[in-house]
Amino acid sequence: MSERERIILLLAARRNARRGKNNGIGILALKLVAGTLLLTMGMVVLAILVAFGSVIGVYAYYAQKLPDPKAVEVVTKEGFETTKIYDRTGRYLLYEVIDPFAGYRTWVPLNQIPLYLRQATIAIEDKSFYKNPGIDLEGIARAAWYNLRGYPIQGGSTITMQLVKNTVIPPEERYRKSIARKIKEAILALEISRRYSKDEILEWYLNTAYYGNLAYGVEAAAQVYFGKHVWELNLAECAMLAAIPQYPALIPNNNPEEARKRQHLVLD
Fold this sequence. Notes:
Number of helices: 11
Shape: elongated
CATH architecture of the largest domain: Orthogonal Bundle
Distance between the termini: 97 Å
Strand order of the largest sheet: 1-2
Radius of gyration: 32 Å
Number of domains: 2
Low-confidence stretches: 94-101
Number of strands: 4
CATH superfamily of the largest domain: Biosynthetic peptidoglycan transglycosylase-like
Order of helices and strands: HHEEEHHHHHHEHHH
Mean pLDDT: 76
């Protein structure tokens, strides 16, 4: 073998050696990247499992202390109604006997409540009512974000959650702003939405919501503010009533201008 051939072979061997070394580094880098990806995926999966387990744990903790969801149906259907005294013909109302702690209450079925009032209530209180499962995840997330940033505890309540608060949450806890109460309302709202139709839930809410001036439910509110039955209300009157439950202090009698602004908000 000539000197030139030996030099060529030597250079080729060195080149192959460098390639092998580079390949080894590349393989090591790929292994490191793959390992990092697997570790990251594992941590993500673990975090999801921990979060899921936490949710299940919270649900189980509060669920065992809650009343049966059927209690909502019992309370709304068997709740107090105003005692009415009519004349001998039974046509003319002479006066009403009210419980000062329970207020005016008269039950009306959903088909006697104007569509305007139903739509206005959903528009101002819970736009996704007929689509959500009883809770508004976006609203809850937004409220949680504000609360974590130190702002006052926000709502995020759906119509179903408000029904729960108005009927089965104990009075001493009903107006206490706490995350624990919101969790209880959410759990019961999920169960109620699973068991009952949206129309049933809306009927119960409209007959139990507080409209100020000791008026509970839309029929009592229509009589207190407009002196007529709820099914006789026009669009403007329906919009006025629908805005009251969020801020019962801003009733037409005491704050006509603010009540009118709320009415326009509903109509818009």
